[in-house]
Amino acid sequence: MNFQTGFVASFCPRIGSLQKSSNLSTSRRVSRSAGRVRMAASVDELKKVVGYKSVDDYVTSGMVVGLGTGSTAYFAVERLGEKLKSGELKDIVAIPTSIRTKEQAEGLDIPLVTLDTHPVLDVAIDGADEYDDDLNLVKGRGGALLREKMVEVQAKKFIVIVDDSKKVPGLGVSGAMPVEVTPFCWEYTLNKLKGASSIAGCDAKLRMEGDKPYVTDNDNYIVDLYFEEPIKDANAAAKEILEMVGVVEHGLFLDMTTAVIVAGKDGVEVIEK
């Protein structure tokens, strides 16, 4: 019995599958792989389900795989390592999106490469902080947004793994929308962000780690933007923010997602574009 089957048997008393048309703003294919999950299932158990499913369903031998960063992506990396060790997968190389993911992958003997030698990926798998009806994302609250976007934008398929708490009516409403900035004159850049017309009214705060600024793997800082209402035009915001001198990258991941695998009390859903 594999992990996914075992979880369904333990936590999903009504097993079944369903294909339906959703009422989202654009056409989506939604599949449900299980019935109601037993309420005792923890958040970590749900993360493990989607992490394992992403590798089981989307990774095959010979692929170049992007490895995301965070508590959900951790389980995808773990599953990839297991399947390589067992011989179920072969000839895989992977590109990590952070130092901590690199260290995890090395500990599992996953062969690693970089975009310098493998600029096109077959698939990238990562979590998200928010996703909306159009499968657009906010990412980067874990601090790895630049490397995540560099890797994931180069993937033929980008698979997002989340629990259902990440669903939002509009981007920016559940917490910080991070922006990576240069340490040089960071306060100037923060004030420019606060004055941007496409995100008017947002609050901007330098991310701290103790009494010092948080430093990314790229030796940059992060300015977190907070919104009382969803970002009205995410595409306009993304363009205006990225055009600012001093901004390195932002946490809006737009028109990149191939599928979102969602775990919740009603089982696992796969929402595809």
What secondary-structure arrangement, pairings included, does this model have?
Blueprint: H1 3-11, E1 18-21, E2 29-32, H2 43-58, E3 64-67, H3 73-86, E4 93-96, H4 99-107, E5 121-126, E6 130-131, E7 137-138, H5 145-152, E8 155-163, E9 177-181, H6 186-194, E10 203-206, E11 208-209, E12 212-213, E13 221-226, H7 234-242, E14 247-250, E15 252-253, E16 259-264, E17 267-272
Parallel strand pairs: 3-4, 3-5, 5-8, 8-16
Antiparallel strand pairs: 1-2, 2-17, 6-7, 7-15, 9-13, 9-14, 10-13, 11-12, 16-17
Describe this structure in words.
The chain is an alpha+beta fold and about 270 residues long. Helices cover about 25% and strands about 25% of the residues. It contains 7 helices and 17 strands. The chain has helices at about 5-10, 45-60, 75-85, 100-105, 145-150, 185-195, 235-240; strands at about 20, 30, 65, 95, 120-125, 130, 135-140, 155-165, 175-180, 205, 210, 210-215, 220-225, 245-250, 250-255, 260-265, 265-270. Strands 1-2-17-16-8-5-3-4 form an 8-stranded mixed beta sheet, sandwiched between helices. It has a 4-stranded antiparallel beta sheet with strand order 10-13-9-14, with helices on one face. Helix 2 packs across helix 3. The chain is globular. The two termini are about 30 Å apart. Residues about 1-5, about 5-25 and about 35-40 have low confidence and may be disordered.
